[in-house]
Amino acid sequence: MKQTIRNITAAKAIVHCLKREGISHIFCVPGESYLPLMDAIFDEPSIQLISARHEGGASFMAEGYAKASGKPGVVLATRGVGGANLAIGVHTAKQDSTPMVILLGQVHRHFRGREGFQEVDLDRFFQPIAKWTVEIREAERIPELVQRAFRIAQTGRPGPVVISLPEDIFLQDIGEAVISDIDIPRPAPSAEDVWSVQEILQRAKRPVVIAGGGVKLAKAEQLLRLFAEKYSIPVMAAFRRHDVFPNDHPLYVGHLGLGTPKSIIETVQQADVVIALGTRLSEVTTQDYRLLSPDQTLIHIDIDSDVLGKVYPPAAAIVADCKEALAKLLETAVEPSWGDWAAARRKQYEQASALPAEKRNFNEAIIASLQQHLPNDAIITNDAGNFAGWLHAFFQFTETQMYIGPTSGAMGYGMPAAIGAKLAFPERVVVSLSGDGGFMMTMQELETASRYHIPIISIVFNNSMYGTIRMHQELHFPKRVIGTDLGHVSFAELAKCLNANGIRVETEDQFTRALIQSFNETKPTVIEVMTDPNQISVTATIDELRKRSNSR
Length: 552
Fold this sequence. Notes:
Layout: E1 2-9, H1 10-20, E2 25-28, H2 35-42, E3 48-51, H3 55-69, E4 73-78, H4 79-85, H5 87-96, E5 100-106, H6 122-126, E6 132-135, H7 142-154, E7 160-166, E8 173-180, H8 191-203, E9 207-211, H9 213-217, H10 221-231, E10 235-237, E11 252-255, H11 262-270, E12 273-277, E13 297-302, E14 316-319, H12 322-329, H13 339-353, H14 362-373, E15 379-382, H15 388-394, E16 403-404, H16 414-424, E17 430-435, H17 436-442, H18 445-451, E18 457-462, H19 467-476, H20 491-497, E19 501-505, H21 508-518, E20 525-530, H22 542-550
Parallel strand pairs: 2-3, 2-4, 4-5, 5-7, 6-7, 9-10, 9-12, 10-11, 12-13, 13-14, 15-16, 15-17, 17-18, 18-20, 19-20
Antiparallel strand pairs: 1-8
C-alpha cells in the first residue's frame, strides 16, 4: 500500500515515514542542526519526543524501547558530538541484533570538507558498528532512503542504521513523496533442510537446543516450547536471553552466560547434537569459544547467513526465520530416546539455581524478594556488573518478554533501557538492576523519567567499587588495588534531587517494603541496596580470592 504526498518539506517527509512505521516515541538530545525535524514532530500528535539528558542515555532508551515493543527504536542527535555520545547505544544494538534508526543532523552541505563546526563524516564514522549507514544529500531521496533504512534495520539479522542529514536539507521542498508499507521477509527452511534435521535427530542420543535472540525477535517462544515438548529436547538460553523459554519448565536446563556453573555447562558438553537456534554463538554463550567439540554435531538455524559457520562448522546450516523453522520442524517424525538424560540435566539445573532457604548474603535475599513479589508480567532490565550474577543464577523467568539486558555488556544501560521499556508497556511494572558504577554513568536520565512521569523502579547495588573489574584485579593482581575503588554516593538522596523517590535499604524486610511501595508510585523510585564489598561475586569473596592467590 502506497501513499503519495505532494509539496512537502524534507522534515515533514521524514515524520510521515516514522508515522507509517508506527513509531510512537522518539528519543533525542535537542540540536540546532535538526530543529526543523523537531518542529515537524511537534505537529504530529501520534509521536512523542522524549528529550534526554545525554545522547548515550537516549540511545539506550531507544534500544530498550525496541527490544520491548518489537518496533525499531528511533533516536536523534546533532553532528559529530551528539553522534559520538550515542555511539555506545549503536554498538549495543549491533551486538544485540536490535532494530534501530539513528537520524543525525550534519553540517551544512556548503561547509562540508572544511572541518566545519562539529563536522565528522558520520556515515564513515559509524560504518564499523552499524548495519548500514548513509548520508542523504538530495531532499528528493529522503522518502526512499529513510524507508530503506527501516527495511534494513528489520530485515534478516536486525540492527542499527545511521542516517546523516545535512542541516540545510530539512526545509527543502519535495515535489512528490511516495510513502510505502515495508514488507519484512520471513524465510522458511526448505524440505531438504527439514529432512536433514530429522535425519540427525533420528541418530541422536543426547540433543540440546541453545536458543537465542532470534527466537525472541521472531516471537517464536511458544513454538519453541511446543518443539521441545514434542521431542523432549532440553533447552538452554543463550547469553542474556533468559526469557526465551520458561525457566520453570521441566525441559529448561540453564543459561549460558558469565559465571555459568560447571554442572550446567556440562549439559552442552555431554550433548551429541546441538541445535543453535537464532543465536550467533557469541564469546560469552560459548564460554570463550570453547563450548563445542569436533565430536558434536551442530545444527545451526539463523535468519542471517553470515552467522552460520562463523564460530563452529555446522553439519546442517539453515537460513530461516526461527518461527518459520520451528513450524516446519514440528512436522517431522522423530522418536525421542533421551528422556532420562533430559530429566537428569534438569535436576542439575535445579540444584545449581536453587536459592538456599537461609540466604547467605543480601544479594540472594534481594533476588528471593523480587521472585516472590514482582507481578508475573513485570519487565526486568539490567546493567553490566557482577551484581547481575545473582539475577542470572537464581531468578526464574517464567513469562515471555520479561527480560531486557545488553549482550554488549554496556555499563549505564539498565535504567535508560527501563525507561524505553516502560514507554512501550506503560501498564507493566518495569524494574532495572544496576551497580553503583554503571548507574552513575546514566543517572541523569532519572530526571528524564521524572519529567515525563515514567514510574520505573531502579535497584542500585552500592558497594562503592567497580565490582567486576575489581574481581579480575584480585584474581590477576592480588592486593594491588588501583582504580577500582569508588567514593561513597548516596543514590537515594541523589534520586530526590532529581525529582524521584529515593529509599536506602540494608535488610530484606526494608527492601521488600520499598519494592511493594514503589509499585503504586507515579514517579520513578530508586532503591539503594547497601551491599557487602567483600561479596564480590556469586561464588567468591575478596578474602577468598586473596587466599587462593596466597596458596599459589
